[in-house]
Amino acid sequence: MPMAAEDIADMIRAAIPDAQVEITDLAGDGDHYAARVVAESFRGMNRVAQQRAVYAALGGRMGGVLHALQLTTAVPN
To answer: InterPro entries in the record, alphabetically (predicted)?
Structure first.
């Protein structure tokens, strides 16, 4: 069963409260998304650590209920 974009955004925001989250459904199938996550709490973290924080927020759903996620992370300008 596909995962709704808003559910993904809600999970990320729950784990990273200062995150601005933008989700795009890449294929229109609810299985292939792109996410842009911008958070001040990422400051001082390298990109790998930022992305690990986002994947941890998804609680192991990657590769299961959430098939594919193209992830971009950043700190605010």
So the answer is: BolA, BolA-like_sf, BolA/IbaG_stress_morph_reg
Q: What is the distance between the alpha carbons of residues 22 and 7, in angstroms, rounded to a whole number?
A: 12
Map residue 70 onto helix, strand or coil: strand
Nearest to 50 by CA among 4, 12, 11: 12
CATH topology of domain 5-74: GMP Synthetase; Chain A, domain 3 (3.30.300)
CA 14 to chain CA centroid, nearest Å: 11
Q: Hey, how many other C-beta atoms are within 10 angstroms of the C-beta on 19? A: 22
Q: Is 1's pLDDT higher than 90?
A: no
Q: Which residue has the tokens 């992830």?
A: 71
pLDDT tens digit sequence for 18-59: 999 999 999 888 788 999 999 999 999 999 999 999 999 998
Contact 3, 39 (CB under 8 A): no
